[in-house]
Amino acid sequence: MSAELRQLYQEVLIDHAKRPRNFREQGAGAVTVEGYNPLCGDRIRLYVSRDDGQLRDLSFTGSGCAISTASASMMTEALKGKTAAEAEALAERFHRLVTAAVDAAVDEEGLGKLAIFAGVREFPVRVKCATLAWHSLRSALHGDAAVVSTE
Ligand code: ZN
Predict the structure, then answer these.
(1) Which domains does the chain have, with CATH numbers?
(2) Are 48 and 30 in contact (CB under 8 A)?
(3) DSSP state of 124
(4) How many angstroms does the Cα of residue 37 sit away from the middle of ligand 1?
(5) pLDDT tens, 61-109?
Protein backbone atom coordinates (compact mmCIF):
# COMPACT_ATOMS: atom_id res chain seq x y z
CA MET A 1 0.00 0.00 0.00
CA SER A 2 1.31 3.45 -0.83
CA ALA A 3 2.24 5.83 1.97
CA GLU A 4 -0.57 8.15 0.89
CA LEU A 5 -3.20 5.42 1.05
CA ARG A 6 -1.87 4.29 4.41
CA GLN A 7 -2.14 7.81 5.77
CA LEU A 8 -5.66 8.19 4.40
CA TYR A 9 -6.61 4.83 5.86
CA GLN A 10 -5.59 6.00 9.31
CA GLU A 11 -7.36 9.35 9.07
CA VAL A 12 -10.65 8.15 7.61
CA LEU A 13 -10.78 5.15 9.90
CA ILE A 14 -10.21 7.20 13.03
CA ASP A 15 -12.79 9.79 11.96
CA HIS A 16 -15.51 7.20 11.36
CA ALA A 17 -14.60 5.24 14.50
CA LYS A 18 -14.85 8.36 16.66
CA ARG A 19 -17.94 9.82 15.02
CA PRO A 20 -19.80 6.92 13.39
CA ARG A 21 -22.41 8.00 10.83
CA ASN A 22 -25.93 6.60 10.96
CA PHE A 23 -25.32 5.35 14.50
CA ARG A 24 -28.93 5.04 15.63
CA GLU A 25 -31.81 2.63 15.93
CA GLN A 26 -34.74 2.34 13.55
CA GLY A 27 -38.30 1.48 14.42
CA ALA A 28 -40.46 -1.41 13.35
CA GLY A 29 -40.42 -1.90 9.60
CA ALA A 30 -36.66 -2.06 9.41
CA VAL A 31 -35.02 -5.46 9.05
CA THR A 32 -32.72 -5.97 12.02
CA VAL A 33 -29.71 -8.28 12.10
CA GLU A 34 -27.29 -8.85 14.96
CA GLY A 35 -23.69 -9.40 13.99
CA TYR A 36 -21.00 -10.78 16.27
CA ASN A 37 -17.29 -11.27 15.71
CA PRO A 38 -16.09 -13.50 18.57
CA LEU A 39 -12.47 -13.12 17.50
CA CYS A 40 -12.44 -9.48 18.57
CA GLY A 41 -15.70 -9.11 20.51
CA ASP A 42 -17.32 -6.74 17.99
CA ARG A 43 -21.10 -6.57 18.16
CA ILE A 44 -23.36 -4.63 15.84
CA ARG A 45 -27.06 -4.43 15.24
CA LEU A 46 -27.77 -3.43 11.66
CA TYR A 47 -31.04 -1.83 10.61
CA VAL A 48 -32.09 -1.81 6.96
CA SER A 49 -35.25 -0.13 5.63
CA ARG A 50 -36.23 -0.87 2.05
CA ASP A 51 -38.85 0.40 -0.26
CA ASP A 52 -39.40 -0.09 -3.97
CA GLY A 53 -36.35 -2.30 -4.08
CA GLN A 54 -34.11 0.46 -2.76
CA LEU A 55 -32.24 0.57 0.51
CA ARG A 56 -33.90 3.69 1.83
CA ASP A 57 -32.14 3.84 5.18
CA LEU A 58 -29.33 1.95 6.88
CA SER A 59 -28.13 2.46 10.42
CA PHE A 60 -26.44 0.53 13.19
CA THR A 61 -25.79 0.39 16.91
CA GLY A 62 -23.47 -1.72 19.02
CA SER A 63 -19.91 -1.66 20.21
CA GLY A 64 -16.75 -2.83 18.60
CA CYS A 65 -13.20 -1.92 17.71
CA ALA A 66 -12.29 1.05 15.55
CA ILE A 67 -12.20 -1.01 12.35
CA SER A 68 -15.60 -2.67 12.80
CA THR A 69 -17.21 0.64 13.75
CA ALA A 70 -15.63 2.55 10.87
CA SER A 71 -16.56 -0.21 8.43
CA ALA A 72 -20.21 -0.23 9.53
CA SER A 73 -20.32 3.57 9.43
CA MET A 74 -18.91 3.79 5.92
CA MET A 75 -21.05 0.91 4.69
CA THR A 76 -24.28 2.61 5.79
CA GLU A 77 -23.18 5.77 3.96
CA ALA A 78 -22.18 3.94 0.81
CA LEU A 79 -25.35 1.88 0.44
CA LYS A 80 -28.10 4.40 1.05
CA GLY A 81 -30.28 4.63 -2.06
CA LYS A 82 -28.70 1.57 -3.69
CA THR A 83 -30.72 -1.42 -4.88
CA ALA A 84 -30.28 -4.78 -3.17
CA ALA A 85 -28.40 -6.06 -6.23
CA GLU A 86 -26.03 -3.08 -6.17
CA ALA A 87 -25.48 -3.60 -2.45
CA GLU A 88 -24.67 -7.29 -3.04
CA ALA A 89 -22.20 -6.37 -5.76
CA LEU A 90 -20.47 -3.87 -3.50
CA ALA A 91 -20.35 -6.41 -0.66
CA GLU A 92 -18.63 -8.83 -3.03
CA ARG A 93 -16.11 -6.20 -4.14
CA PHE A 94 -15.41 -5.24 -0.56
CA HIS A 95 -14.86 -8.86 0.41
CA ARG A 96 -12.44 -9.35 -2.47
CA LEU A 97 -10.59 -6.18 -1.49
CA VAL A 98 -9.93 -7.15 2.12
CA THR A 99 -9.10 -10.79 1.41
CA ALA A 100 -6.74 -10.17 -1.53
CA ALA A 101 -3.01 -10.77 -1.18
CA VAL A 102 -1.19 -7.90 0.53
CA ASP A 103 0.88 -7.16 -2.56
CA ALA A 104 -2.03 -7.39 -5.02
CA ALA A 105 -3.04 -4.19 -6.77
CA VAL A 106 -6.05 -2.51 -5.21
CA ASP A 107 -9.02 -2.55 -7.56
CA GLU A 108 -10.75 0.60 -6.40
CA GLU A 109 -13.42 0.64 -9.05
CA GLY A 110 -16.82 1.31 -7.56
CA LEU A 111 -15.50 1.26 -4.01
CA GLY A 112 -14.87 4.97 -3.50
CA LYS A 113 -13.68 5.68 0.03
CA LEU A 114 -14.16 2.04 0.97
CA ALA A 115 -10.90 1.34 -0.87
CA ILE A 116 -9.02 2.45 2.25
CA PHE A 117 -9.94 -0.89 3.80
CA ALA A 118 -7.26 -2.42 1.60
CA GLY A 119 -5.10 -1.56 4.62
CA VAL A 120 -6.79 -4.36 6.56
CA ARG A 121 -5.06 -6.93 4.37
CA GLU A 122 -1.88 -6.27 6.31
CA PHE A 123 -3.60 -7.37 9.52
CA PRO A 124 -5.36 -10.68 8.78
CA VAL A 125 -7.04 -10.94 12.19
CA ARG A 126 -8.75 -7.63 11.42
CA VAL A 127 -10.46 -8.85 8.26
CA LYS A 128 -13.40 -10.15 10.26
CA CYS A 129 -13.73 -6.80 12.00
CA ALA A 130 -13.97 -5.10 8.62
CA THR A 131 -16.42 -7.59 7.13
CA LEU A 132 -18.79 -7.95 10.10
CA ALA A 133 -21.17 -5.21 8.94
CA TRP A 134 -21.13 -6.62 5.40
CA HIS A 135 -21.92 -10.14 6.57
CA SER A 136 -24.81 -8.68 8.53
CA LEU A 137 -25.96 -6.77 5.46
CA ARG A 138 -26.06 -9.89 3.33
CA SER A 139 -28.12 -11.64 5.96
CA ALA A 140 -30.51 -8.68 6.11
CA LEU A 141 -30.94 -8.70 2.34
CA HIS A 142 -31.52 -12.45 2.19
CA GLY A 143 -33.72 -12.51 5.23
CA ASP A 144 -31.87 -15.46 6.72
CA ALA A 145 -30.48 -15.72 10.23
CA ALA A 146 -31.22 -12.73 12.43
CA VAL A 147 -27.95 -13.39 14.22
CA VAL A 148 -24.72 -13.49 12.24
CA SER A 149 -21.39 -14.68 13.53
CA THR A 150 -18.17 -14.35 11.58
CA GLU A 151 -17.08 -17.76 12.88
ZN1 ZN B 1 -12.77 -5.83 15.82
Answers:
(1) 3-145 (3.90.1010.10)
(2) yes
(3) G
(4) 7
(5) 999 999 999 999 999 999 999 999 999 999 999 999 999 988 888 778 8
How close is the Cα of 99 to the center of ligand 1, in Å?
16
What DSSP string describes 2-58?
-HHHHHHHHHHHHHHHHS-TTBS---TTSEEEEEEETTTTEEEEEEEEEETTEEEEE
CA of 144 to the centre of ligand 1 (A): 23
Report CA(122)–ligand 1 centroid distance (Å). Answer: 14
Q: How far from 7 is each of 12, 58, 108, 116, CA to CA, in Å? A: 9, 28, 17, 9
- How many CA atoms within 13 Å lie on the side-chain side of 143? 4
List residues, by chain if needed, whose CB lies under 5 Å from ion ligand 1.
40, 42, 65, 68, 129
